[in-house]
Amino acid sequence: MIGRQKEEEKLNEIFHSGKAEFVAVYGRRRVGKTFLVNETFKGRITFHHAGLSPIEIEGKGALAAQLSHFYTSLKYQGLEGEKRPETWFDAFYLLERLLDKKDDGSRQIVFIDEMPWLDTPRSSFVTAFEGFWNTWGCARSNLMLIVCGSASSWILDRLINNHGGLYGRVTHEIKLAPFTMKECKAFFESNEVRLSDYDIAQSYMVVGGIPYYLGFFRKGYSVAQSIDDMFFSKSSVLRDEFNRLFAAVFERPETVKQIVRFLFTRRCGYKRAEITKATGLKEGEKLSESLNALIASDFILKYVPFGHSKRDAYYKLVDPFCLFYLHFADNKDSLTSDFWKQNVSSQNVVSWRGLAFENLCFQHVAQIKEALGIRAVRTNESTLIKRWGKKGMQLDLLIVRDDNIINMCELKFYNKEFVVDKAYYKELMDRQGRLEEMIPPKMVVHQTLITTEGLKYNAYSTVFSNVITLEDILA
What we know:
By secondary structure, the protein is an alpha/beta fold. It contains 20 helices and 13 strands.
């Protein structure tokens, strides 16, 4: 298992706690939650059930379909002589009967996968589940209940942050994050996919650290060949993924997609009021739910630009898959099956690489801090958006440190060493001067270059106090 050692250790530690445990595992769809639980407890799971996708069972029969499927799981795993449940109260009673029958005193693991899908409209699922855990499950010292779901906001709202009968009942929560680039490299190596650091970065910029997507990069193929296979060929496996992704996870998928498409139009993102105005969505609870759901699933990021107050928070699209899909594949059915191979050096692709690399760096701040030798220093990461009359300045990554230093980061994706010329040197010094006007005298600005292959030495290269490369991020 790649990159999940801490989560695996935590789950095994919980397994041996000797008391009733209720574990919630959540994270973006396709990130590997089910794989983590199944691999960690292979051969040790007493009862396993996965909800049916709402895409397949829309309509009035959703509750009956979920109950029927749950009953099938119960029968397959040992339940005998019981009728099909008509309600979730009946279903959890049957689960209690099955676990009683199997109980030999050893640890029992109950794994309910994609739990949010079971909570169909007017099903009373949460109430029935609450009764199951509070009345029966929490008193079983040998029971370890693991629930899992891609609808992260549902897990957070209905379980972890529940203010009703399930308040404080979750004993452990595990949020499974996408792979880092280093973990992507290990994943490729385990699949015998040989890629340079430069191409590993490109693969991350296309699909992020999502194991399911990374699995489509093929042994013996270039990155360009794999991208065409995934997005542009006639049988492309990810051509419809964008729609499936949101339909399977969000209660209001069309609303969520509308927000995502709007956020895509500006790399720094938008304020909440701008989202409301542009999309026509009304201010209120439903907009908050949609934004919070996107944040919880790592699709968007809420942040405060440098020098702004919390009231000026921005929402920014950061999911690499969505950014790539909306840029190149959305509503573009006329593209050729070898589009990427044909356009790999086009200006459109070159410009996209620059923007995508900025996003990659923002998602690897921990590795950048490690390379700077400031892992233990408290920091705040942000961007700077500032206008002076008709002109303005945008700095894509500022690392504001508690040791009175600000790393003003320049992010450059090049296939060779980056060169600083006289004009660019003057531009950098002008930006630094403007930034210094905004900060306290006690703080010092360190210009920092984050790039692929490093910096070429010349008369102007000393403008950078620090240089970080892909090799450092992958270290």
